[in-house]
Amino acid sequence: MSGDATPTELWLVRHGETEWSRSGQHTSVTDLGLTPDGESVATRLTHPLAECSFAQVLTSPRRRARRTAELAGFAHAEPDADLAEWAYGDYEGLTTPQIHESDPGWSIWTGSTPGGETAAQVGERLDRVVARARAVDGRTLVFAHGHSLRVLAARWLGLEVSEGRIFDLDTATVSVLGDDRGTPVVRRWNVAPR
Length: 194
Fold this sequence. Notes:
The chain is of the alpha/beta class. Helices cover 31% and strands 18% of the residues.
C-alpha cells in the first residue's frame, strides 16, 4: 500500500476463553467471565493490536468481550449491542450434541433456535456494524463472540449469514477484513497472539 492513507479495515477479536467456550456450551446472554487462561491469553493481544491505530473501537456489552478489550489495552472500547452473540434462546448453555438429542441435525447456520434469534435478525444487527465500520476513515476494531463475528465476516464479504459457517474462529484471536480495489476481502483470519 502506498501513501499515508489509512485503509478501511475491520479488525475482529473473539473474546478469551470462558468455562462454556472450553466445554462447547452455547453462550449468548449468560454473562460469563474469562477463565484464568482466557485472561492470560487476552493480555497477549496487546502486542499485535498496539501496532495499529484505530478510528473506532467497539465491544459487545457482554463481560467476556469487555474484559478481553480491557486486557488487550482498549478499556475505552464503546459497547455496541449489535455485537452481542447470536441469542440461542432455549439452546443457551447446551452443547451441540445435547441439542441433537432432541433436534437431530440441528445447526445454528441452517436450523432455528426456539426462543432465540433468527439468522435474519442476527444479519440485520451485524449489517449495522458493517455500515458503521465503513462510515469511518481508517480501521475499526471490534471485540465480540464466535458466531456473531463469523456472521460479521460473512456480511462484510457480501455473503449470506449461513456462510459464516466456513469461518472457523478460536478464542482470543485476531482477524482482519478489508477491501482490495473495491472488493471486500479477508486479509488475515484466526491469528492467535504469540
